[in-house]
Every structure is written in C-alpha cells, then in structure tokens.
Design a protein that fits this description.
The complex is a heterodimer. By secondary structure, chain A is mainly β. Helix content of chain A is 0%, strand content 50%. The chains are: A mainly beta, B mainly beta.
Amino acid sequence: GNSVTQMEGPVTLSEEAFLTINCTYTATGYPSLFWYVQYPGEGLQLLLKATKADDKGSNKGFEATYRKETTSFHLEKGSVQVSDSAVYFCALSREAAGNKLTFGGGTRVLVKP
Amino acid sequence: NAGVTQTPKFQVLKTGQSMTLQCAQDMNHEYMSWYRQDPGMGLRLIHYSVGAGITDQGEVPNGYNVSRSTTEDFPLRLLSAAPSQTSVYFCASSRGGVGSYEQYFGPGTRLTVT
C-alpha cells in the first residue's frame, strides 16, 4: 500500500537558519506529492505540490523537488522566520484512488528569534 | 466564501454516547473526506465521498458512519463513542475528476471521550 515517512521532530532552529525536512514515500503508480502546513490551532493548508517526476513545487520561500529515483520530496527553506513555526505534513495522492491523501506523521518546527 | 466549516469546535462525550460532527463546504466540490489526527500519526482517512449519494471507507472506518445526501454536507456519526476515538477530526473537500487538486481543510473538531 501507499505510505509516507518523514523525519520526526521537533526541529528547533534560530531565525534565518536553513530548514530541511526529509520525506520519502512508497506508492504504486505515479502519485502526486504535497506539503501541507498546520499553524497552531488551525486546519491544514496546502504549502506546495508536485505532480510528476522532477517537478519543483515552491511557495512562500519553501521548495521541494519530486525525485522519483529516490522516492523523495524533501522540503527546504533557505532562511526561516518565527512565523514559519508550525507542523509540516508530507502527503501523497493518486488519481486512481480518488485523490485521497496519505500523510506522513508530521514534523513540528519551532523557530526562535 | 466560508470554505469548509465544521461544528462543533470542541466536544466532550461519555463512553457509549453518540453524536454527529457536522461538515459543510460552499465551493461546490465533488470530493469530501473525514480524517482524524493523532499525535505522531499524521492524519488518517476515516471515510470519503466522491459525490452526493456515494461514500466509501478509508483506512480507519470502524465506529463511524457517514452519508452524503447533498453536495455541500458530509456529516460524520459516532455510533457509540469510545476513548480510542479521542482525537482531532478534520473534514476536507476538493474538486473531482482528473487531476490532483488541492484539498481544503476545515478548522477541526477536538473530541474527548471519557
């Protein structure tokens, strides 16, 4: 079946530090890959997505590249801000499966001033 | 637009009680889903629907029922609450058809079963 594995947190960083959150997946066929972000007390919001191999998703300074050869979709940001403190979820979906999402366990990121 | 709305925001139940979590969307989305969020486990799919009158089970359906009589509404029923159902519940909706469309999430319902 489908599965997503992401690094456990919490990840604690200083402002302006570089952030990487690793994500690898197992899936049949050709899934689409997503990063969702959950700010404290809120629901999830889409951060970025990629729908085919070598696609790069980007938004708000975050980037992730769909690497089929390593089945990975690592999230990166060059200079984090306190406002980036949140829980980040890697997820996949397959059209053939009704676009249902399979999530990783989430990574909590805390950015200190 | 309100997007995806959920009620209530918080609920405490005693073991054995039943209740319905409400979810509505105003984006005319075909697909709707219910997830539960537990610490360290991400979100897991409970039930989903690809259109009015059509529902199916997700990864963790036991103890929950759904129905979808309209495009807008997708209520989740807990038949006989158990402490293992203590969780945060999220409803989501998305466009249907070909293409991996963004899912829009509601603000969540935090449920405690004692």
